[in-house]
Amino acid sequence: MVKEDVLVAGIWILLATAIIASYRVIFGPSLADRVVGLNTITTKIVGAIAILSVLWREWYLLDIAIVLLMVNSVGGLIIAKYMERRGRK
């Protein structure tokens, strides 16, 4: 029971910090701040999904988390390339 309580507390902490990071996504002064905030939120959600997969013993959720991380990293690279090209003009 104690281990489950720690994992549930970890999920709540991840979700709370994701909500705090959403401030940067909404009110970020630049596109780079918004991208970093969105990547942070996605990483925290992946951590919460991984914890839930352990709690529920649903191991396919780890596959979903890995795919979400890959999409997040590729999306970050695409936006970084866009920002680099936009800076040259």
Describe this structure in words.
The protein starts with a helix and ends with a helix. The model has no long low-confidence stretch (mean pLDDT 92). Helix 1 packs antiparallel against helix 2 and helix 2 packs antiparallel against helix 3 (60-88). It has one domain: Helix Hairpins (Orthogonal Bundle). Helices cover 91% and strands 0% of the residues. It has helices spanning 2-27, 31-56, 60-88. The protein has three helices and no strands. It is mostly helical and 89 residues long.
Question: Short description, anyone?
Answer:
Its main location: membrane. Helices cover 91% and strands 0% of the residues. The protein has 89 residues and is mainly α.
Q: Any descriptors?
A:
single chain; 89 residues; mainly alpha; Helix Hairpins; elongated; transmembrane; Multisubunit Na+/H+ antiporter; membrane; transport
Write down how many β-strands occur, each being a DSSP E stretch of 2 or more residues.
0
User: Uncertain regions: pLDDT < 50 for 5+ in a row?
Assistant: none
Taking the alpha carbons of the first and last residues, their distance comes to: 58 Å
Compute the average pLDDT. Answer: 92
CATH structural class:
Mainly Alpha
Total number of domains = 1
CATH topology: Helix Hairpins
What would you call the shape? elongated
- Percent strand: under 5%
State the order of secondary-structure elements, H for helix, E for strand: HHH
Which CATH-level-2 architecture?
A: Orthogonal Bundle
Number of helices: 3
Report helical residue fraction.
over 70%
**Biggest sheet layout:** none
SS-derived structural category: mainly alpha
Computed over alpha carbons, the radius of gyration is: 16 Å
